[in-house]
Write a structure and sequence with these properties.
Number of helices: 14
Order of helices and strands: HHHEEHEHEHEHHEHEHHHEHHE
Shape: globular
Oligomer: single chain
Bound molecules: 5'-deoxyadenosine
Radius of gyration: 19 Å
């Protein structure tokens, strides 16, 4: 099995059968080699740098109804909030002082945030902090909308594809949502010149290893600059409340595989990974991850942005405890970068 990790390291690709074997392996030697090779590749392109992204959870109001998500519109128990443009600016001001050079504006698909509302906010952030990147993560919109937001100054866009296999996609989403539109959005974003992030949950209900291979193949086509994966974690107010969480082991193996398949990708050690395993994010960093996304949202709303149960809300997640996050990174043997942390665009692979 170590042969497969080595092959993925040199060739950046494997056959479906080989990928399946590596994804499912319980061979410790192969896992260790995978982690070692993933770290070698991340260090080749990014050294020991870890980029911090200040996450601003701007709204828990969502018109979508993804079956797994705690802020889905039919969850009557979800507490809804929306930050005002001034509050978003305050998050950026605080984040800038803490050393963040990327602000991620993430939220449910909240109709309040029209282009007319968002563009001036983006313009103001870029005007005040021209050395910072603005990343949007606000779901599916039209080409025209993505274009206006880009022209207003947005640099990057996160939109996990969630599931590239049609059948799985429709088991996780209501009929009015479609994989086709999701993919259309991602293609549009790429075409408009955004740095784009795709991704999926590991261990989602009904997900098979073939589904995961399908996700990897889709991302090989799309060539996103960022990939977000984290374990599925059930939320008590969804129909998946009794489903099992994804495991840290599978998530970490996939992080290693992704680093070798997409050598220069920006890859976060996600909050969900830190939620299901005590040292999840540290292990992620040692297996190819080079991004951490601390929460910059005001403490008063943080609990309300509840995508899944037991999400880490305080301690190292709070920007006030930025030091703790830096400790985590130092403990894993890496260093916090003060750069924007853009995708390194060299021809060489
Ligand atoms: N468990 C883990 N991740 C989740 N997300 C939404 N709900 C859950 C859950 N129950 C992820 C989705 C989404 C991102 C913002 O959070 O993949 O794209």
């Amino acid at each position: 099995m170590t042969g497969l990790a080595e092959k993925l390291f040199t060739e950046h690709d494997l056959s479906d059968a080989e990928l399946k074997a590596l994804i499912l392996t319980d061979d410790t030697a192969a896992e260790n080699l995978l982690a070692e090779r993933a770290d070698e590749v991340r260090q080749k392109y990014y050294g020991k740098k870890v980029f911090l992204r200040g996450l601003i959870e701007m709204s828990s109001i969502c018109r979508n109804d993804c079956y797994y998500c705690g802020i889905r519109r039919s969850n009557k128990n979800a507490e809804r909030y929306r930050l005002t443009p001034d509050e978003i600016m305050e998050c950026c001001d605080e984040g800038y002082k803490l050393g963040f050079r990327t602000f991620v504006m993430q939220g449910g698909e909240d109709a309040y945030y029209t282009d007319d509302v968002l563009c001036p906010i983006i313009g103001k952030i870029k005007g005040r902090y021209p050395d910072c990147a603005v990343t949007l993560s606000i779901g599916e919109r039209s080409y025209e909308s993505y274009e206006r937001l880009k022209n207003a100054g947005a640099d990057r866009y996160l939109l996990r594809h969630e599931a590239a296999a049609d059948e799985l996609y429709s088991k996780l989403h209501p009929d009015f949502m479609s994989l086709e539109n999701r993919k259309r959005c991602l293609s549009d974003l790429k075409r408009l010149g955004y740095q784009v992030g795709a991704g999926f949950m590991v261990g989602a209900p009904y997900q098979t290893v073939e589904d995961i291979i399908c996700d990897l193949r889709y991302m090989q086509e799309l060539q996103p600059q960022m990939i977000g994966i984290g374990p599925f974690v059930p939320h008590r107010d969804t129909q998946f409340r009794d489903e099992k969480s994804g495991t840290a082991e599978l998530t970490i193996r996939l992080l290693g595989i992704i680093r070798l398949m997409f050598p220069r990708v920006l890859l976060p050690a996600t909050t969900a990974l830190g939620t299901i395993a005590e040292n999840g994010r540290e292990r992620g960093l040692k297996t190819g991850c080079n991004v951490i996304m601390p929460n910059l949202s005001p403490a008063a709303v943080r609990r309300k942005y509840s995508l899944y149960d037991n999400k880490i809300y305080s301690g190292s997640e709070a920007a006030e405890c930025c030091g703790e996050m830096r400790d985590l990174i130092a403990r894993a043997g890496y260093e916090v970068s003060t750069e924007r942390g853009d995708f390194v665009n060299t021809k060489e692979n």
